[in-house]
Design brief:
Layout lengths: L5 E5 L12 H13 L4 E4 L2 E2 L6 H16 L8 E4 L2 E3 L20 E5 L7 H11 L4 E4 L7 H9 L4 E5 L6 H13 L2 E5 L7 H16 L1 H14 L8
The chain binds fe (ii) ion.
């Protein structure tokens, strides 16, 4: 078992987005992750560029992080602060984009909209990956395979797999294909709330790391490398 098991994608900051409505929920989420063996979690509240300004987002995230920080204990996973940034065309020119990276790093977690992407979306991801950030595409398992492969091979991102793909045989097959490609740099629970399905997402994360052998360990090592320079809360 690797020393650090990192959940790279978790909606665990109280009030920062719809992932957690309160400090109690955030602490319950962290306990679920802890029980699943997670040692490190990256808090990745949604950033929607059409609804939010970078400054308003950062203020909300800061307040949420301060609230959580005051309640963290040594038994809970270490928490890093990042964002899940929805790609919109032209975003590479957005002021403050770099401030959405995981704090202390140049790592930016991106997500694609669930609509058909035209060329401008691919261009934008390519351009973002050339601005000096290390772009990681969230839950690559959710996108059509061909389109997802273009993001990696044409646009230069690495990818994060959600633990949900290990819930079905088909999802597992897809996940193993991605793992074989060597492009996966992170696993994530993408935990929202603290109900049964959140618990299952957390638990699957530990199962992935157990069941994927060397490939899974290699992903965890890559995640840890991505967090170089990141300072956890508290
Ligand atoms: Fe997410």
């Amino acid at each position: 078992m690797p020393e650090r098991i990192t959940d790279f994608h978790a909606h665990i900051l109280p009030g920062a987005d719809h992932g957690s409505e309160s400090l109690d929920t955030s602490l319950a989420q962290l306990r679920l992750l802890k029980n699943a063996g997670v040692t490190d979690a990256v808090a990745t509240p949604h950033f929607y560029p059409e609804r939010d300004s970078v400054s308003a987002f950062l203020k909300r995230r800061e307040d949420a992080a301060a609230l959580l920080s005051g309640a963290l204990t040594r038994e809970l996973p270490r928490v890093y602060v990042g964002a899940e940034v929805l790609v919109c065309p032209g975003m590479e020119k957005m002021e403050g984009l770099q401030s959405l990276c995981i704090r202390g790093t140049k790592v930016l977690l991106l997500e694609m909209p669930f609509t058909r992407w035209n060329e401008r979306f691919y261009e934008t991801v390519y351009n973002i990956s050339r601005t000096g950030v290390n772009a990681v595409m969230a839950h690559i398992n959710r996108y059509p395979e061909r389109a997802a492969q273009r993001l990696v091979y044409d646009c230069g991102v690495s990818v994060q797999l959600n633990s949900e793909c290990f819930a079905s045989r088909r999802g597992k097959k897809l996940a193993m294909k991605w793992l074989d490609s060597g492009c996966v740099t992170a696993f994530g629970s993408d935990i929202h709330g603290s109900d049964k399905s959140a618990a299952a997402s957390a638990l699957r994360l530990s199962q992935i790391t157990e069941k994927t052998g060397e490939a899974g360990k290699s992903v965890l090592r890559k995640s840890n490398a991505l967090l170089t320079g990141a300072v956890p809360l508290k």
